[in-house]
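Just wondering, can you check both lines?
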Amino acid sequence: MQRILVTEDEPDVRNYLELSLRCHGYEVEQAENGDEALKFLKRSDSRVSLVLLDIMMPFKDGIETLREIRQFNKNVPVIMLSGGSTPSTIVETMKCGADDYLTKPASQEQLLGAIEKTLAKHHASHVPVMKANPKVWESRAAGLGSWMKKMEKVLHRIAVSETSILIQGETGSGKEVVARMLHANSPRAAHPFLKVNCAALPTELVESELFGYERGAFTGAIKSKLGKFDLAHEGTIFLDEIGDMDFRLQAKLLQVLQDQEFHRLGGKETIRVNVRVMAATHCDLERAIREGRFREDLYYRLNVINLHVPPLRDRPDEILPLASFFLQKHATPSAAAVEITPILSDAMLNYHWPGNVRELENVMRKYLALHDPDAIAADLRHRSRQSENAPTAFPHPEVVVLSPPSAMSTLTKVNEVQRQAEIEAILSALDRTRWNRKQAATLLRVDYKALLYKMKKFGIDGKRSDPVEAL
């Protein structure tokens, strides 16, 4: 989670900024004046992604504080805030090393837009570029070890291309890490990488988040707002959990992919952008197409290159290196060092990790808090015993670049079971509606055309009766 240090002497403004930022997923620290901000930034355990710094403060103003910050930290992004702006003040702050300048009262859209743009620009300027050294990959990919070695040449070609990418894999397997790594080693590395989680946002907000809106487009739209596609111009936009995107919105996304242009909500002007799209999902999109939940034309537009990130259980040689990496990542300088004992190591290697890399990271954070390797090992063994008594959860079949060779026979059996279950469900719905296919589609909660497709696919010809379809 990205942490922002809010430095503001007025409590009401400071609390408003904290509330706004926390609501959008940021971790927030407060400082009442310049001295508090400097003290916090000089702490060895401080992790700050960005500083919001008010100019008008007692004792030590924002410009003086900024000068001192730049003496010991030239990299942390700083956005200046001021109740009044003059050209000379803006020029002075930029000369001192500010990344952006906002005039108070700044709207939530202006504030978040400036923060996202600054963080994206800062990230792009501090990542290695593959063209300089093809062997250098972003440190966040530390743990993809053996899979990375197998896929290195392929990933290199994908990174330097301009094509759309669909990344598939189980939740927590590292899809976003791969996407960021590909962007960081692409020709677009100096431009923004912006992420939109299609599952985390309400459906009605995804469109405005992606494409922005004009003033007056809806109640509460008092100012125009740029969307992610605007902000990601010449960079990369990462659509996480694309399988959960609203069906109607998929048509507008398809237009952007085809024509590189769109209209903001409430706007008439055509906006042209140059953005590379990467999408990720844990869903079986081909099944979603058959069920009428995902557009087939959008699937083939996104699926130019298909990458499958294997689950952690299929990369057992990476479990211990990843665990060590997370212990170093989350350890505080003052905490006592912890080691992975033989008992804990054995438990980790025998655990199936249904939550993949994300679950492993959380277990290591728990270990750092408890300092009890035997308790962590016992918990993992207990979870393993529970999973052995639970029904086996098979993954949906997917189009993949790399998959375990032994999986095909099992998936074939699973597909047959699913096929029979679908046939029985369709026949049951048709019988209950006296073979009225539109009513059956409503009963099954699928699109009417999707039902017709399935009936044709399964050889259900409707000979039991021939009712007139409802109009």
Q: What stands out?
A: Residues 127-143, 392-411, 463-471 have pLDDT under 50 and may be disordered.
